[in-house]
UniProtKB/TrEMBL annotation:
InterPro entries: DHS-like_NAD/FAD-binding_dom (IPR029035), THDP-binding (IPR029061), Thiamin_PyroP_enz_cen_dom (IPR012000), TPP_enz (IPR045229), TPP_enzyme_TPP-bd (IPR011766). The lineage of its organism: Bacteria, Bacillati, Bacillota, Bacilli, Bacillales. This is Acetolactate synthase large subunit. Keywords: Transferase. GO terms for biological process: isoleucine biosynthetic process; L-valine biosynthetic process. Pfam families: TPP_enzyme_C (PF02775), TPP_enzyme_M (PF00205). GO terms for cellular component: acetolactate synthase complex. GO terms for molecular function: acetolactate synthase activity; flavin adenine dinucleotide binding; magnesium ion binding; thiamine pyrophosphate binding. PANTHER family: ACETOLACTATE SYNTHASE CATALYTIC SUBUNIT, MITOCHONDRIAL (PTHR18968:SF13), THIAMINE PYROPHOSPHATE ENZYMES (PTHR18968). Its EC number is 2.2.1.6.
Length: 205
């Protein structure tokens, strides 16, 4: 629904789809009849009820994702086949259809995508970013260039409005020496803005 052109084409044209530890929710799948139509589906999940729940699964493995990956690595003996042509095709899609929002002039109103890119440049690669729910959440995932794991705090497909501000406060408490940015919409902010009153009494950066 909110992915890049290249990612959507990868799903549409792949012959094997491996899902490790994630649900097939409606935001991911969209029209079930058109979702990954050429692919055999392998699904690894610790919850057995998720296997085959939404998408027909050809290969289901129930277990902890980390444990299953270690076991699969032990089974896959020898070099894997080359996927050079497939990767080149996907890179071609990405080059032909990049994320973009057009040129920005000084006289133009600020575009959210541009603002998020500027936050990224200012905050640096070590910053933690928490989002609320809505279009700003999608723009943050698309236009904030995360370079390190564990830096994007979001409720994802759960759609928990009001999550962003308390999540940012929690991240700051856990990592007091790290920059934390909260990217919020007006609706989500109003749901938990009372948490703001906890900030003046804390020595947060």
């Amino acid at each position: 629904m909110h992915g890049t052109f290249a990612a959507n084409m990868a799903l549409s044209e792949c012959d094997l789809l491996l899902n490790i530890g994630a649900r097939f929710d409606d935001r991911l799948t969209g029209n079930l009849e058109k979702f990954a139509p050429k692919a055999q589906v392998a699904h690894v999940d610790i919850d057995a009820s998720e296997i085959g729940k939404v998408i027909k699964t050809d290969f289901g493995l129930v277990g902890d994702a980390g444990t299953v990956l270690v076991q699969l690595e032990q089974v896959l003996d020898g070099p894997l086949p080359s996927h050079h042509d497939w990767l080149n095709r996907l890179h071609g899609y990405a080059d032909a259809h990049p994320l973009h929002y057009g040129p920005v002039k000084a006289s133009d109103p600020l575009l959210p995508q541009f603002v998020i890119e500027q936050i990224c440049r200012s905050a640096g690669p070590d910053a933690i970013v928490a989002t609320d729910v809505g279009q700003h959440q999608m723009w943050s995932a698309q236009y904030y260039r995360f370079e390190r794991p564990g830096k994007f705090v979001s409720s994802g497909g759960l759609g928990t409005m009001g999550f962003g501000l308390p999540a940012a406060i929690g991240a700051q408490v856990a990592c007091p020496q790290t920059k934390v940015a909260a990217i919020l919409g007006d609706g989500g902010f109003q749901m938990t803005l009372q948490e703001w009153q906890s900030l003046p009494n804390r020595d947060y950066p």
